[in-house]
Amino acid sequence: MLYSEKVMDHFSNPRNVGEVENANAVGQVGNAKCGDIMQMSMRIEDDIIQDVKFKTFGCGAAIATSSMATELVKGKHIDEALALTNKAVMDALDGLPPVKVHCSVLAEEAIEAAIADYYKRQGKEFTPKKACGGCCHDCHQEAE
Known about the structure:
The protein has six helices and three strands, in the order H-E-E-E-H-H-H-H-H. The chain is of the alpha+beta class and about 140 residues long. The longest helix has 21 residues.
């Protein structure tokens, strides 16, 4: 399985690792059966993501997609972050092997889960894009 230089860079030197202090948005997605669990924490002010960090338990592709996803949403309006797709994360990493596409889906879902938490804390209604059907294999089929 070959990974792009960008995937290897974000795996070897992940950006934004850890937890945001005073986070007001936290989301966790994944499935222990699949082996990948992602947590995103954010500090959002005036609907702008001021800070975002991740903690991921999983393979190198899961770490790389988490790292890239945080880079893509940092400083963005929450609507822009919600518009981020797994394809955009994969494109930013110069692609992923087909068997690792589910990692980019998890990154997209982790961002959405954190923003959903932000909405909940604000007492606002949140409509998810699409809920995951369970194990990564289901999402993998739809992501391609």
